[in-house]
Specification:
Chains A, B, C, D: Its EC number is 2.7.1.11. Chains A, B, C, D: This is ATP-dependent 6-phosphofructokinase. Chains A, B, C, D: Belongs to the phosphofructokinase type A (PFKA) family. ATP-dependent PFK group I subfamily. Prokaryotic clade 'B1' sub-subfamily. The structure is a homotetramer. In chain A, strand 1 (about 15-20), helix 1 and strand 2 form a beta-alpha-beta unit. In chain A, the strands form 2 sheets. Chain A has a 7-stranded mixed β-sheet, sandwiched between helices. Chain A starts with 15 loop residues before the first strand and ends with a helix. Chain A has 11 helices and 11 strands. Chain A folds into 2 domains: about 15-150 and about 270-315, Rossmann fold (3-Layer(aba) Sandwich); about 155-265, Phosphofructokinase domain (Rossmann fold). The radius of gyration of chain A is 22 Å and the shape is elongated. The relative contact order of chain A is 0.17. Chain A has about 325 residues and is an alpha/beta fold. Chains in contact: A-B, A-D, B-C, C-D. At the A-D interface, helix 1, helix 5, helix 6, helix 9 and helix 11 of A face helix 1, helix 5, helix 6, helix 9 and helix 11 of D.
Chain lengths: ~325, ~325, ~325, ~325
């Protein structure tokens, strides 16, 4: 029989925590909110939900969130707490307003679900006003140091892959080249995964300064090998994006080339299981972190389990794409 | 007990038919090819598959297709016979070459799966060389007169709707406007269905010359009503497309507006049941039509059952969008 | 420019209507509720939502539903108004209670979304208490006379088809027979559509008393033809169900046979576009029907447009499966 | 610029390898076959595909597989090499036949994609005939020691989760209990993941001997908390399965309870990205392992990268479910 200890010690004496989502929305954010609310409830801690991220925080858009309020949300895309950008939060005055509201609500810590920009916003609050802040990595780009994966990443890859599978139908039928741009302004994680899983001929990522012309030779070879249609994946952050790559192919090979920019659909949709599970674990971990007296860290998950990374490290370091996987993409496109 | 008569009379004495797919690929084309091959086999008729549409026909890219060759294809997107554009086919010489190959193969009729451009190509062949041609409506746009729906249409709507559902997650979370362009160069069928099914605030179609400015008022009202995020659907063929509509909204309301052009993903993917069933019925009907001595007609399906429409009528007439549905879209966006 | 007249005449002087869902839930019920609420609102009519079907009606579980209350529901499976069975409603006393509540709320008509059992319940109410009742066909089985399709049917077929596609992967890999039971207690509509769209070898429906032994010969032939794996579809209502068919095949052929009963997953999921559109149209039509002074009819949709069928006819008549499609299933399984 | 070395040293002097799939099929097996074929081709090594697993091996059902033969297979469920059970292989004579064929084909090593039963079969071959065997973990159950995940597992979880999401629609609408049985004869990995991702109230796995009666109390509490409908997940290998759990709930609470056994659909479908990527990496690694002179090991993937586990360890050890995740499932069901 497996022993479960559901009670987590609470040396920090936390009685109430606040939670918000910030930055671009990511599938699984609701699962993370739900996990925060329910893990807290299981420990007798109350949760205050802040609407519209930091923008709502400095305006005091807050309300109590109970376990039933997050029922039937684990499978929902987007974020029930809404998200927004806030210029006011970048000012000390804005943050002071937010801190005032948090104190008024008697909150012992703030959980910020978002990317490194959002962690920045939270970190300033903690530095200036002493309110403990815990980051939960929620962004589709997977570009956060300190966790193997970020919440939303798996779903974004799946959505992009589904699109690639569809485009391949047309590419193969018309023996056409498709150049597909996926999200990733600063990182090629999505692009690389989609390239391997989609059986792409080539992938362009911001981490590698591979000259655009190389693709022309690759496409030519691929046609000579008898391939029907080719799929080229380009990360948004690669210089020039998919359009530049497509233009180069069209000019260099004369083959019919189509450019497809997948865009925002990659942010939406019901989260896949891996994102829901990761969000559930990290949401739970964030509550325990506050109870343990942690502050100014991001909870992450690596093979070894839950980890804490000081917030500044999440934006000072970058997370490399896997070179092994990059080789795998190349080797299997033979 | 339901009596089934599987034997269809064959006054035309057909022994062999050819089949090709032409124009843009559409989900369900494989189901139609399969139906042609198997319906023919069930009547003791052989089928010659032509690869790469008319382009392959004038080059003689042909081979026999048996019932096992189309096994496990009903669920596949694209077309196993490939498709291509052909300039040569637009010349009498090109068509003469095609006719020569068809006669060499002893073919008693040609089944063309595609849109009105493809039917045009087939019609010329019949006029000039006397080879009976039957059209099967395969195009995602649903813009063919003579059939309630075209093969591929249902899947395209479903794919676009899935994207709309995903974008709504983000739209609602950020309280943002999404302007989404769906396929339909000359017709608003996809756009209108997606608008109703996607719960859009507004839809722009080529059939209605509604001024672009009207959308600004609609979006403003929608915000006043308390709607979180708005979805606007624009058919590709509407003047200026989604970009123009998005620009107008951004300029007129100042609200954050995102434009998303869904593009070619709408052509791919495993066909939904309605497309597979329609393709199965029309592929079967095309074989029977040749056996009955029909020529120069498109087989279609309306509520009354299978219909024959002379090929020229398919491009001389247009199929209206439903005005009732157009009103429904408006009424339900309140 | 397409003229839209959004104002519907209201000779019946309707000011408020009630709506409920009853019987088994079906995907698209929420889209129908939304359409009722918004079509009513567009005509200045209020809507009272009744929770838990007739069971909630005789207990007075009612509340006003405005256009914003149904926001973001069109894509949701199940029914936000809940549904339940009610023994009390089968008694005159129970119905008198319900009528009393409806009068208290000042309701000019009741819209019942459900199947023929639910229409029965509504019809009694109208007969005994004079409250106009309009039926909206919501059931996955498609077994309602008076409409080409019922709300939920398209999604159920799609869900079952998706399962068939998945089972075929395994069936083909193991060269195994799969016997798959789909919903349809009294009708073979789902089974037949799934059989054609899934490329099944054989289909058993309640409408045809085909002896179970015939399947043995068909499966044997299918193996001789070189088919890898076979798919047999059985409607729930066929004598003995899938288990009996599977046992007969195993006993008669010695081939590895697996029985899969899809069950309740066919009721759930986000409705496909066809169900959302049908629900939107019929929900709108139900409101207009009350305004027109209709009572005791089901709104349906056939090729000709919206139709009214007296409620008793919906349960006194049955809707045949298409014999043409039945033949098509057989012909294409060659 | 990222340096890629595509050439792997070949001290073992491998010129040709054989590959087969064995045991229950799993989504991603085709991606693994493709990876073996293409990684080998990239190193100038030929690949012999064996059809129908060990059953085909002792009958010599073998053929060369080139890079184009595996085109367009990465997204396909099932296995293009087919799979089957073999009694003959359990005899020394059967294995001797297989060894003879492998030598005739000049094969320097055999790659077995499957579960521990299949590895057993391969191990005997190596022990008796000296042919190097490499195992690739392909089974949906994830119950193989020596790798964090097995190929097919992620897709199976996703398929089961999709079913749970659908059943919840009905469960919530009818306020009903659903007891859902997922695959896992000896292990609760799928069940636990699905429980957390599906927001289940309770999960029963073979690893924990929790008494069935405990569920009655949990369901009662869940109703008292105001939950609409409950989801209970049961692994196939839990004593009595879902039926026993469902019976206990019905008897103990009197609430309407439905049992749903998901069955074989969990094996099929297009593999999700995580399975395709894992399969690509492990297929590539298996080829390199043979080139490195490895034998009698399974290639696996853990956080640290590619690992080799002696085949006997894969069946002598068991892989625990995560106790942390088990607690998480409980905590979040509050």
């Amino acid at each position: 029989m497996i022993e479960i200890n559901e009670i987590h010690p609470n040396p920090a004496g936390i009685k109430r925590v606040a939670v918000l989502t910030s930055g671009g929305d990511a599938p699984g954010m609701n699962a993370a909110i739900r996990a925060v609310v329910r893990a807290a409830a299981s420990q007798g801690i109350e949760v205050v939900g802040v609407r519209r991220g930091f923008s709502g925080l400095h305006r005091g858009e807050m309300h109590l969130l109970g376990p039933r309020d997050v029922a039937n949300t684990i499978q929902r895309g987007g974020t029930i707490l809404l998200t927004a950008r806030s210029r006011t939060w970048r000012t000390p005055e804005g943050r002071a307003e937010g801190a005032r509201y948090l104190r008024e609500w008697g909150v012992g810590g703030l959980i910020v679900i978002g990317g490194d920009g959002s962690f920045h916003g939270g970190y300033h609050l903690q530095e200036e006003h002493g309110i403990p802040v815990i980051g939960v990595p929620g962004t589709i780009d997977n570009d956060l140091y300190g966790t193997d994966h970020t919440i939303g990443y798996f779903t974004a890859v799946e959505t992009a892959l589904d699109a690639v599978d569809k485009l391949r139908d047309t590419g193969a039928s018309h023996e056409r080249i498709f150049v597909i741009e996926v999200m990733g302004r600063h990182a090629g994680h999505i692009a690389l995964d989609v390239a391997v899983a989609g059986g792409a001929e080539e992938v362009f990522i911001p981490e590698d300064e591979k000259p655009i012309e190389s693709v022309v030779e690759i496409v030519k070879q691929s046609v000579e090998k008898g391939k029907k249609g080719s799929i080229i994946i380009v990360a948004e952050g690669y210089d020039g994006g998919a359009q530049a790559v497509g233009d180069a192919i069209q000019a260099g090979t004369g083959l019919e080339t189509r450019v497809s920019i997948l865009g925002h659909i990659q942010r939406g949709g019901s989260p896949v299981s891996s994102d829901r599970i990761l969000a559930s674990r990290l949401g739970e971990a964030a509550v325990y972190a506050l109870m343990d007296g942690q502050k100014g860290v991001m909870v992450g998950r690596t093979s070894g389990g839950i980890t804490y990374t000081p917030l500044p490290e999440t934006w000072q370091n970058s997370k490399d794409v896997s070179h092994d996987l990059y080789r795998c993409a190349r080797v299997l496109s033979i």
